[in-house]
Fold this sequence. Notes:
Elements: H1 2-31, E1 39-53, E2 58-73, H2 75-85, E3 90-99, E4 105-115, E5 129-130, E6 133-134, E7 153-157, E8 162-174, E9 177-191, H3 204-209, E10 213-225, E11 230-243, E12 253-263, H4 265-310
Antiparallel strand pairs: 1-2, 1-12, 2-3, 3-4, 4-5, 5-6, 7-8, 8-9, 9-10, 10-11, 11-12
Amino acid sequence: MRRKVALVLLALAVCCAALSPLLRWYAFPRLARVPAHHYQATVMVARDATLLDYATMRARRVPEVTIVQTLRGDVEAAERIGRDTGRDVVVWDALSHVQGPDGEMVSRIPERYVFDPHTQEPVHAEEEAVDGEPVRRRGLEFKWPFLTEKRDYAYFDAQTRVATPIHYRGTRDFRGVEVYYFEQTIPWTRVEFPRTLPVEGLTAEAVEATGTTRWYTTVRRFWVEPLTGAPVYGEETHREELRGGTLLAGRDRVTAFSGHVKMREDYVRHTVDAVAGQRLLVLLLSSHLPWGLAVGAGALLVLALRAEARGVDPGGRREWPRRGRPDSAVP
């Protein structure tokens, strides 16, 4: 009987030992994924900011500028691009909509972002675009990979259309959640005018024809929950200028926008709550269950060996059942 128990325990130990790495290295990458239908909206505000008045072409102080950023998953596009590339992909249609204190649109920049649903690395496809122009992304955008590491990453900047390092600056506590803090600085760089401008009939081509150019710099900061790779908070110190050309009537430069952009408080609370639930699931798949199975396999192996050892007497002979023992037989 003890021998049968030992065999059952040994079989369970082998099963747990096999499931532990299988769950971590095979199941986890396939289960921890950004869903193709994902939708997210984030509102950021810059209070006491500087904004260009296109009617007078002069900068003015305004109480608040609002940036609404939406991410919408396109399931049909993901299936189509997945068939073309032979890979699992997620397609996000992103839109950054900037509006002034009167609610009027200042600028809107759409993007199409194609990426791997687990690693967040971009997958190159013909539909990749920023503001209607094809791009070939390198690096992350919007989200970090699951199990984010304490290192620098390449982060894509939609204004300059290039990826530059975003630096890991340490581990911090953000409202009870352990996060990694990242910071990226984009120096003054000449960038394209948005295709959609706040003045009706005014086009980017018409502005560029005057010889006026647009320049941009920012310091971008993210607080990232490392298990899910989701930013729980973000802010930017953002500046834009128009320089030269006849549009400025002889002036060398004028500020188009300047402000400290931060996530609105209600969206911060919502994001922290949402990430807390996702964090537990990732922790189970990546750590708790694999390690639990590995420890369980070791415990079952010990029990199997003990059961086997109890089935052998000190002389090395196996125990026999009481009925039918050889020493009770009549010679």
